[in-house]
# Entry
Amino acid sequence: QVQLVESGGGLVQAGGSLRLSCAASGRSFSSYGMGWFRQAPGKERDFVAGISRSGGSTYYAASVRGRFTISRDNAKNSVDLQMNSLKPEDTAVYYCAADSEGGITASRLAYDYWGQGTQVTVSS
# Structure
């Protein structure tokens, strides 16, 4: 089992940057595939980015590719999401998630563990 805690959210102007972090506690963090999702008010929770167990493979939603970068540090049990060139439509609660099967997937059904979320608001 793993517990996830996100941090780093906040208010930023369009064009700005934020870095989200997810701290994991529990055993065998390096065995989990990790992902970031986001949920805007009244909308479903959507996939943003995923990273493999080793960090060697990453996958992004088309809407964020080229602007966001996911990374992980297995020694520190953490996964980050660097967000650049932010747009008002990036406004959402961002969630960190862990997949015990270790894969990279955009399906939220594959993820077993979730953090509580962190709010990101991008003003125009």
